[in-house]
Amino acid sequence: MLLEVFAFEIQMCIDLKEQRRMKAVFRLSQNFASTIEDPRVVGTIKECGGKMYMAERKWNEAKNHFNDSFVCLVEVGNSRAKTLLKYVILASLLAQSEVDVMSTTQSKTFSNDPEIIGMLNLRSGFFKNDIKTMTEVLNDKKINLLGDPFIAQYLDELLRSVRLKTLESICKPYKSVKLAFLARKIAVPVKEIKGLLSELILEERLEGQIDQLKETVELRATEQQTA
């Protein structure tokens, strides 16, 4: 019962974005978790921990906690197991982890589920930098992935991540690229392209600078091409 109270409290903190209290309650719950053998309760705590780490953008930690929750829920036949598997896939995408989350016996049970197939198609589009496929999956009303408010909450983060990867891939062969060209390729406004490029440069994923007058990005690249 005490851990269930902790789980409720953590969820309230997530909803209210009270990060400091959320972390304090979660850490306190961990002191008791090792003494509880009920996988339903442990699964709930692990799910809340995953959501906490997602809010902190600690994608790998979130993925691990969601996976622990998934395993617990599968053990007791809880219907939320499928939802947690979707969260595992979501967190693995944001972590840009290429580890096959469907390789375990527990996850293979859901391999023919339409929603899980949709998440895997989303994953495939992500790693292929295929924004069109990702958009089609997200807009598919039959599987309705965005019907889950938690997944919908991280849609912008997911699309931003794949846009950054795509932009990085497009730019690398060039020494100079017009911002308008990149905007057409990524299908976003030039203003957003500038923000994405600034992030890539600050993270040292690209070497160069934006020329505001010429509306280009000037890059130090191995191949001397211009787009």
Overview features:
227 residues, mainly alpha, three-stranded antiparallel β-sheet, 5% strand
How many β-strands, per DSSP? 3
User: Oligomeric form of this entry?
Assistant: single chain
- Share of residues in helices: 55-70%
Low-confidence stretches: none
Instruction: Characterize the overall form.
Output: elongated
| Sheet with the most strands: spatial strand order | 1-3-2
Radius of gyration: 20 Å
Biggest pleated-sheet summary: 3 strands, antiparallel
Describe what this molecule looks like in 3D.
By secondary structure, this protein is mainly alpha-helical. The protein is built from 12 helices and 3 strands. The chain has helices at residues 2-16, 19-33, 39-55, 59-75, 81-94, 105-108, 114-127, 131-138, 149-153, 155-171, 179-186, 190-202, and strands at 176-178, 208-211, 216-219. It has a 3-stranded antiparallel β-sheet with strand order 1-3-2. A hairpin with a 4-residue loop joins strand 2 (208-211) and strand 3 (216-219). Helix 11 (179-186) crosses helix 12 (190-202). The model has no long low-confidence stretch (mean pLDDT 88).
Secondary structure layout:
Blueprint: H1 2-16, H2 19-33, H3 39-55, H4 59-75, H5 81-94, H6 105-108, H7 114-127, H8 131-138, H9 149-153, H10 155-171, E1 176-178, H11 179-186, H12 190-202, E2 208-211, E3 216-219
Antiparallel strand pairs: 1-3, 2-3
Helix pairs in contact: 1-2, 1-3, 2-3, 3-4, 4-5, 5-7, 7-8, 10-12, 11-12
